Amino acid sequence: MLRTLGKRQKGGGTEPSAPPLSSKPPPDPSRNFEKPPDIPRSIEPVRRAPEPPRVYQNTRSSVITQPSEPARRAPDPPSTFRKPQASETIRPAEPTRRSEVPRQKQNDSLPPDFGRIVWITDPEDGFRAAQIIDLSKSGFTLTLLNTKETVTRKYEEVFSSEDDPFKSVEDNCALMHLNEATLLNNCRLRYKNGKIYSYVANILISINPYQTIDGFYSTQKIKEYRGKSLGQKEPHIYAIADKSYREMRRHKKPQSIIVSGESGAGKTESQKSVLRYLCENWGAEAGPIQQRLLETNPILEAFGNAKTLRNNNSSRFGKFVQIHFGEKGNVAGGYVSHYLLETSRICRQASGERNYHIFYQLIAGTSPELHNYLALEQPHCFNYLKNGFVGFFTHPNSNSSTKIPKSRWSDSRFSQDSMVDDFLDFQRLENALKLSGLKEKEIMFIWTTIAGVLHLGNIEFEENIGDSKGGCKVSGGSEGAVEQAARLLGLETMELKMGLCARIMQTKGGARGTLIRVPLKSQEASAGRDALSKAIYTKLFDWLVSRINQSIPFEKSTHFIGVLDVAGFEFYAVNSFEQFCINFCNEKLQNFFNERILKEEQALYEKEGLNVRKIEFVDNQDCIELFEMKSKGLFDLLDEEARLPTPSFKNFTKRAHEENRKHFRLDTPRKSKVKSHREMRDDEGLLIRHYAGSVCYETKHFVEKNDDQLHNSLQILIEQSTSSLLVSLFPSSSDSIKSGNKLKSQSVGSKFKSQLSVLLKKLESTRTHFVRCIKPNNQMIPWQFDGSAILSQLQCAGMTSVLKLMQDGFPSRTSFGDLYSSYQRNLPPKLARLDSRLFAKCLFRALGLDQHDFQFGLTKVFFRAGKFAEFDQMMRQDPEHMMSLINKVNDWLVKSRWRQAQYAVWSVIKLKNKIAYRNAQVTKLQSMTRGYLARQKFSRQIAIYRKACNLLRNSKEIEKILSHLNENSRAKWTSSAHLTIKDLEKLVSHVKLASVDQIEKAENAYEHYVKRVDSMILDLRRQQKSDEVEELERKRREEEEKERVMKEEKERLKRMEEQKARIQKEHEAQLVEQIKKAAKEKEENEKSAQQEKLDAIVPNRLADSDGIAVVMSPESGSSSGNSTLKGKYDLAHWKYAELRDAINHSMDINLLVACEEEFRRRLRIYNEWKSRNASKRDEPAPARAPLSVYDASGSSRQCQQRYFKYTFDAGAQLEFSFSGKTGMWYAHFSGEHIHRQITIRPSQMPQLMIAGRDDLQMCELTLRETGLEQKPGAEITEEEFENQWKMAGGN
């Protein structure tokens, strides 16, 4: 027991030891989960139920010291200190009533939760398992389970673990401890067991295996998931597809499946799986449309996917594929929308990346005749291919490498990938194009156009020495490339040369103006060539998508299911305009996710009156506004720069920083943690803090990449082509608006922004399902789990916030009316009369559903996560199943009415007993009536007797008047008054014994005594009045003197009250100012912490994946809310056991106070951590104090006994909730620290706690920190507290 606390206690005794705890077998050592060296595995610490979460304000503990004395280190612990023994890890169980259950003594030298297994942050694995061995100044001291290394972690870096860390669950909401660590561990366990899917309620998490899993997407697997509810089978992408289809049929509303994740996370394969599932199940009657829908993927992947550093089959455009369904639920057609094709990749690629697949497929897969006709060569012979990776891809088990002639190889080494095979993919592409309805002429047009783009890239320019205007010409080595490009694109060779080396300008004047030919320099000609290549490829891609949509019409469509697949969040060592647009798109989708899952969900719970705790999350709306703001937004600034005569990327960057100065999301490159980024000038880059981390963009090519306009001369050149299909891709220049020498068109950024707005409006009109794809490692190694990278992706996707919301929330719901209407047509008349809400209640009772699994709102019924099977069981539309449910409802009603009949019989029996009771009461009434008649017979005698008794009682007034007379008057009247009273007593006795004939004589005597008494009372009152006049005169003189004295005292008190009020007002103003200052500091600290976190995510992952040099930030101080203690003693390095022993044994008063302050500070922070990491099955522990008590700060004072009471909301588990039930909290403070406390809740036994015995459960704040002194009416007397203590069972 703490000695200082024990002195304050009024009694106590020795406390017996706790009984031994049950043993738990150790885990399997083969799972790399070892026990610590000094702790036997047969003993497990008892985990108490966590306390409700509270709000703390950071405080600075202080100790008593002389101002002039310098700080010194605390003396060494006394010789009685000893190391904690492993056998002392036993802790007592929580009794129901602390004052009545004998407590057992625990080892004071052991910290709370000693030996508990937890998860701690780790830069490589995300989290690692460790065991608590001590409670340090700013966190925990722990031992790693696998290496037995001792480490320290801050409180916010430690998370609770499951009781069995090797048990995995399909739905992460089923975890008992819901935090980032348990979520990551569950994903790790499932991934190592070959299970790549898991749920967070109805959101699917998919981790890419980077390997084909046999039978995992087979036709048999498709059949297994058809018609199955979420949770009935293992998590799978097919379950999400089936759920979306059934909800479309049930609610008659379009559905959308948003597949999101980083590049290489498996989004494209997930989208293909959804399309295949829907087409194979409900597309049999669609004929060729079904096959065309499935064959859209080879076409889109060939022309829109490419190899990047992080993904061999990365989608470089966004697509929203809609599958339309008819009235009967069968596939009726489809539609493909595409967004932001990455055009810069056509002309240049980063080292190690490839151009679009179609270029390599064309070289690898064409027949020799077609290969010669297209004049194709090895990839490294083309300028548009040679700067990147020039090898081919093959499947691991295919022989494609032998089918590609060696004359086409640039690299003898073939890269293997389970999804990409250049030779086989070209054969599939040809079949897909034919199946989509393209004719041979159109297919040949595609091949010639693609080959023409390759040859265009080989055209190079040199200065024309003979041109006085400084123009250029085609170099001698490029003549062959010009001829091949002109032939394949249907152009004249000379026209192509002239169009590339010069541009035509139209001057004003006349009907059409004057055409002027302006020679171009080599750099300008190269830029025009690249612009022409990108324009041709982009128009070809748009035409292909249009032809696909023509082949899958949807005239008979009623609803659709759309699958969205866009490029995931990207970051590289060098990020340009493509990453800028892609990451903006992901910001918008993340915001949509926040709105749909977090904001709208919680708003619905509040509207329907559901008691679901509020979940905080990071809103990225400010980042979206940074891009979209009018005049100040980045897109508007970029467009405004492009309209200038000489646009400059430096001017754009400078203006972006100036217009958005002090914006949290925007900063200069020198604030980046990547070393190469810090070398950039402020006008050369933008550091944007996205939801997934801070990305530094190099703005060097922003202006030119945002310009999607083609020179007028190149437009005219294309119009002269003999290929009608190529001409049809470009609008006529005569119909276009010309601006200078260019055709005026929308910029790339503006076009993408408008497309994205249309997409989001379409998504908002649908019911949304989410699939979060996760990239397991950056090296694309099969079945390798990189915990740190995966944790970063889960955090950025907002899965931890969703996990907490779905654990308390209800992801499935339907209105009472919809539920009733789905059964109404099959209901018999006796059930059809039921109210829709009553019918839902009957249905749930009939199905035997647990009341915890659903909740009734005002207009809807809600189901918890993991109860989709029960929900779907009710909402299924097949008549046979509905009739079985209706029969169950009918049976339940029959049973309910039978119980009502039983109640009616019981009521009749009760009525019979009541009639018998009333008969007995009638007999009693008869007896009372006979008594009444007897009293009427003697009524006259009784009346005179009562009058005489009343007169005797009234005569007592004579004695009362006598008592108010002065002594002389009292002596004069006493004898006659006493004689009168005695005569009255004789009269009463006479009337009582008189016979009937003596009644008249008694009445006359009574009248005589009435007059006698009245006369005497009148005389006495005259005498009393005379005495009172004399007394009043005496008192008047005394009152005048007293009033004079009171007036002087009142004036003195008034002056004191005014002074006190002025001091109190000043004190309150200081408190308000302190609170505002603390709130501002807290907001700034949180903002700084968020900025530091975002700035570190991307650099750390770049360092891990690409080996980029990162600037390490200095270690910040502890964020646990306590700065270094200032004073005589430095207790930062003292262990928990040393503090306890110093408190128990030290004779130094100053050291004692300092140790107690430090001990309680650590205990307060620990209890806050324990509340945050509570298990969802734990019951609320005894409240240490009401939530509103934790709101102030202060320092220690003299030891003074004070008592307080406080009313709190007894039913609320959260600070912002309110249950309507009130409880009382009583506290006894000895000096600054609590000594005893009582917690009284409705319908519960009082909880009594005493310092030194119940420290872990008691309020750990000082009296000043609680703020109770400033709360009106909170302080009570010692007597009131002691009465409550005894009533609650205390000694």
TrEMBL record:
Residues 1-10 have a biased composition (Basic residues). Residues 1015-1095 form a coiled coil. Keywords: Actin-binding, ATP-binding, Calmodulin-binding, Coiled coil, Cytoplasm, Motor protein, Myosin, Nucleotide-binding, Phosphoprotein. Pfam families: MYO6_lever, Myosin-VI_CBD, Myosin_head. It comes from the Eukaryota. Residues 17-29 have a biased composition (Pro residues). Transmembrane segments: none annotated. Residues 113-163 form the Myosin N-terminal SH3-like domain. SMART domains: MYSc. Residues 56-68 have a biased composition (Polar residues). ATP binds at residues 261-268. SUPFAM superfamilies: P-loop containing nucleoside triphosphate hydrolases. One of its GO terms (biological process) is actin filament organization. It is found in: Cytoplasm. Residues 1-115 are annotated as: Disordered. One of its GO terms (cellular component) is myosin complex. Residues 94-106 have a biased composition (Basic and acidic residues). Its main location: cytoplasm. Gene3D superfamilies: 1.10.10.820, 1.20.58.530, 3.30.70.1590, 6.10.220.10, Kinesin motor domain, Myosin S1 fragment, N-terminal, Myosin VI head, motor domain, U50 subdomain. Residues 756-778 are annotated as: Actin-binding. One of its GO terms (molecular function) is microfilament motor activity. Residues 167-876 form the Myosin motor domain. InterPro entries: Kinesin_motor_dom_sf (IPR036961), MYO6_lever (IPR049016), Myosin-VI_CBD (IPR032412), Myosin_head_motor_dom-like (IPR001609), Myosin_S1_N (IPR008989), MYSc_Myo6 (IPR036114), P-loop_NTPase (IPR027417), SH3_Myosin (IPR004009). Belongs to the TRAFAC class myosin-kinesin ATPase superfamily. Myosin family. This is Myosin motor domain-containing protein. It comes from Caenorhabditis nigoni. The lineage of its organism: Eukaryota, Metazoa, Ecdysozoa, Nematoda, Chromadorea.
